[in-house]
Structure formats: C-alpha cells, structure tokens
Amino acid sequence: MTRFSDPSDPRAPLPEWVQEACQILRDTPDVSQSDFTYEEAYALPEEADTFSIEHSDSEYAVERLLNRGYLYEANGTFRVTETTLD
C-alpha cells in the first residue's frame, strides 16, 4: 500500500507520478509557510531535475492533489495540507 492510499477510500490510489509531484511541492523550502500561485504549483514539478512531465500533466497532478485534499486553495493560491504520513 502506498502512503497516499487509504484502505477505507473506495477510489484508486494516486498514481506514483502524482505522488512524486506532491512530494516535490512538499519539499519546496518553507512550504509550511508558503502559498503557491497556479503557475508555481504547475511549474515546480515541471522544473524538478528528477521529474519530467508536460505542463498538462502537471495541471492534472495539481487537480488530483486538490481533489484528494493534499493541496487546498485559498484566495487563488495553493497550500500543501499538513499531514502525518506513516
């Protein structure tokens, strides 16, 4: 089981590359105090040296993370939801 899956959630676990995009956003310096614009949230995974995706894939990943609650939107910006992962 991946750490982005919940056995009580009937939805399929997030794809590995979406999980990687989330980790990239989490690993951004001062992420707990930062918000991301749409452009930044899409660009950070695209610019990562270890991750290669297209802009449309980045948008998809951000939308999936938003829908699952790993990101939240406030006043037109995104923040990473604080979670404790096992």
Low-confidence stretches: none
The helical percent reads 40-55%
Mean model confidence by pLDDT: 78
Rg, alpha carbons = 12 Å
Work out the strand percent. 5-15%
Order of helices and strands: HHHEE
Tally the helices.
3
Query: How would you write the strand order of the largest sheet?
Result: 1-2
Q: Give the biggest beta sheet.
A: 2 strands, antiparallel
The class by helix and strand makeup works out as mainly alpha
Termini gap:
11 Å
- How would you sum up the global shape? globular
Query: What's the number of extended β-strand segments?
Result: 2
How would the blueprint of this fold be written?
Layout: H1 16-26, H2 38-47, H3 55-68, E1 71-74, E2 77-80
Helix pairs in contact: 1-3, 2-3
Describe the 3D structure.
With 86 residues, the protein is mainly alpha-helical. It contains 3 helices and 2 strands; from the N terminus they run αααββ. The protein has a two-stranded antiparallel sheet. A hairpin with a 2-residue loop joins strand 1 (71-74) and strand 2 (77-80). The radius of gyration is 12 Å and the shape is globular. The protein starts with 15 loop residues before the first helix and ends in a 6-residue tail after the last strand. The mean pLDDT is 78.
